[in-house]
Sequence to fold (1100 residues):
Amino acid sequence: MKIVIVGAVAGGASAAARARRLDEDAEIILFERGEAPSFANCGLPYFIGGVIQQRASLLVAPKQQLEDRYRLDVRTRTEVTAIDRDKKIVNVQDLETGNKYQQEYDKLILSPGATPLRPPIPGADLPGVFTLRDLRDADRLHKKVREAKHAVVIGAGFIGLEMAENLVHQGLKTTVVELADQILPPWDAEMVAPVAEYLQGKGIALKLSDAAEAIEEDGTSMQVRLRSGEQVAADLVVMSVGVRPENTLAVAAGLAVGPRGGIQVNRHMQTTDDDIYAVGDAVEVRHFIDDSPIQIPLGGPANRQGRIAADHIFGRNSTYRGTQGTAIVGVFDMVAAMTGHSEKALLAAKHPYLKAYVHPKDHAGYYPGAESLSIKLLFSPDDGKISGAQAVGRKGVDKRIDVLAVAIQAGMTVYDLEEMELAYAPQFGSAKDPVNMAGFVAAGMLRGDHPMEHAELLLDNDSDQKPFILDVRSPAEFKAGHVPGAVNISVDVLRNRLDELPRDQPIVTYCKIGMRGYLATRILMQRGFTVSNIGGGYTTYQAMALSKGF
Amino acid sequence: MKIVIVGAVAGGASAAARARRLDEDAEIILFERGEAPSFANCGLPYFIGGVIQQRASLLVAPKQQLEDRYRLDVRTRTEVTAIDRDKKIVNVQDLETGNKYQQEYDKLILSPGATPLRPPIPGADLPGVFTLRDLRDADRLHKKVREAKHAVVIGAGFIGLEMAENLVHQGLKTTVVELADQILPPWDAEMVAPVAEYLQGKGIALKLSDAAEAIEEDGTSMQVRLRSGEQVAADLVVMSVGVRPENTLAVAAGLAVGPRGGIQVNRHMQTTDDDIYAVGDAVEVRHFIDDSPIQIPLGGPANRQGRIAADHIFGRNSTYRGTQGTAIVGVFDMVAAMTGHSEKALLAAKHPYLKAYVHPKDHAGYYPGAESLSIKLLFSPDDGKISGAQAVGRKGVDKRIDVLAVAIQAGMTVYDLEEMELAYAPQFGSAKDPVNMAGFVAAGMLRGDHPMEHAELLLDNDSDQKPFILDVRSPAEFKAGHVPGAVNISVDVLRNRLDELPRDQPIVTYCKIGMRGYLATRILMQRGFTVSNIGGGYTTYQAMALSKGF
Fold:
């Protein structure tokens, strides 16, 4: 068996190692255009920022180790330029010597990854304009940041924000420009609006709903001209507006690709040619939840796909279950994570959904160091099945999203979240964990115990029938800031002041995070009022207002 | 509806709050023997240790708040002394005034908790001997530690170790005495043996397989006399040898209790009297996995049970799913957590099982601060269903046990662990998360790809057929310590030295954590050798040896 693999990072390297474990006799050849196989691409921003100090630590599985340990034939700085499917041959070029040759295969695995997009604006090719994909890019940036003072990052996705943080670590005055009206576009806007505010507090200038129109040389430096008319000085510009699947080889060979360019594969990662597999960021996968075709570049799935392709080559029935879209990004001390569908994705796909917000502490409030985190849970109005979740905060975010990712994988409902028995000691969680809390709120909505409205209602000025807005926090909290038009009656005295509330008008109530508002809703429902609680309370209201530019 | 609740901490307070949300008109009376309702019992050791500095922060829901917000009738320092089931009346005594009275109920909820055991040894009642259950105990200890220099903690369970840590924080020379031959008896010995070693490194004297036989006054101090003959000086002694369910009221009223004293309840938390419910540490519950009756005092389950009892009183069909035994303890920087069955529990119950060990980093090794953690996974040899998991390490332990707790709740298998899509960025995890790794190893065993032996084999000196022991680590690693009798051939050169291996004798191979050993096993299997890998490699071997006193 002769296996040829194109691309020796995540998916390709995993496929190679798995293939070797399954067959000592296979000939396994890894072609890698870059200088090193299996490097830590997710670590590159942190190398540039000096968080990772040793470049060598980015070489996760060095060439020599792959050769000795796995008896792989690793050919770096070598590009596969064409596939001849009939002859089962690839054309190869050694990028160092220029030598060209052909290589036969029995099975071919494509793991070429994805290419950073470079918007076609004037100046995009200036030497001070960078993208970040491989070690060479990282080395160039690593050098450049040490002599630069001002940076512009175009694109506020994962890489853009990680780069921005690391540029700040290196002392650069950094501006981030993002076309969307929010950072981290896969998340819902109100979840990440507080993160945007936090980044501004860290000295990053954020230009949302804006775009770079041109990059102009300015002496030894540059000026980035924005659509808004603003000009921003930059000694270096990082383009991180997204990636496109590296499909050139596949398309030239007549393999099917999807509408967004991803190489199409079946559940075994086989392309439309049975002898050619494709894995990683270059492929179009199915969404775990609704089986829709998607393009999500993630390291975990790439590794699993590589393994599955190797399994299938050796006659095993391994199948890829689909990608859930579990993702996480840390910026300074703030973390945003998600899994499954966002609200905007559910809206776009016209999937019915309900949503719940909670803002609990990451661990017991009485133990030092507890921090609030915000969880948004999306679930089916029919059976409570979980569709997606997002979490933002300083601590415990990764844990809760992992728990919810598993719940989605298992097809669990919000009722299951109520019953989850998670590890509790005061420094790690609460007897009622944030995940339980999200379950309580969501299940309460489905059971009819907890009528809910969302902050959008309070921000929609076109609505003609205004509800009576009841703030059930303490007078001190009310005084520090409240929803315009709200009347303040603390939940602790509400039972004695029911005569101040209207019986002919819907009431919406809110507190800081939704707990007291829920109790107020229970009290008023039982006394015959028409009442709903605002999900996530004033905390969600503020985030929503921020996201809408109020 | 008149609801009387005995005990106003976790389960009782949850039941009361839920009952109020369900019925504004119910009369809800909470009797609490202690001075405060709803206090943070899991925080008491940290209050004593000065980690939690404000005593007020232990009062999670103060009396006044429960009265104002939930309109509960909270009667602290008041004891319920008897139940008259026929008349549906409880006898009550005010502990401050001595006044006695009767209180009618429609529904009674018992949430009396559990009492710390005090072994009947001479001196157990000396004033310097403490147990830790409530705020009074905590106040007394809080005062005492500030004038003490030497402490003895009897019992190395959760509370014992948390107390030991906090006594060290207060500068006390601390000795821990434990009857079992390991700390943290719910865990398997080899998982916590490294924690015991770590505690000794923190200056704690550990006396395992030993017991206090007497405590004797010695001037203003005491001497604790151990079964081993040793004497340990102590200005204070903390007894933390376990708890027994507080069942006096229930037994006197003729309610059924289990063999270990727990009040017996159905899935709705009803006792053998339909109008009396019981929740929390006082009840016998069913194990989530095998439905066996168990007694596990945990805060999370107590809260859920309180909620379920209130639901059922108001005609809802809420049911308790059983307790999984998810638990966690932090001592200094080390964390041990578990969920589901331990190996010793599976052995005792004669459940068939397999086990897998992994020792991955908590996050990507190339990102600073990565620490190893150890995971032990127990699963069914038939279908791979997960039976239990334990994890020990400095970071990321709580997250992995929570993920595995959900997997158990969902009835997932080790094959599901392989496919889990968890949140990955280098500071939070790895593209192949520790949970995925555990799944790979376990599924490899079930598929026959990964023949496994365990370290016990190497430590069993009675075995007559000795395997050939092959250490596939580097010569430097081998030199630093290895299994007696092992032969060292690094996996990187193994393929060239097959002629040094026996074809007529079983081979067991090992490396540091099991990865290279697995590859060596794959190589040798395919070359016709009879070979197994040692699960968890030399790391598990060392922990196992430590646990067996080698």
Chain B touches chain A through 88 residues (CB under 8 Å). The mean pLDDT of chain B is 97. Chain B has 17 helices and 31 strands. Residues 452-547 of chain B form a domain with the Oxidized Rhodanese; domain 1 fold (CATH 3.40.250.10).
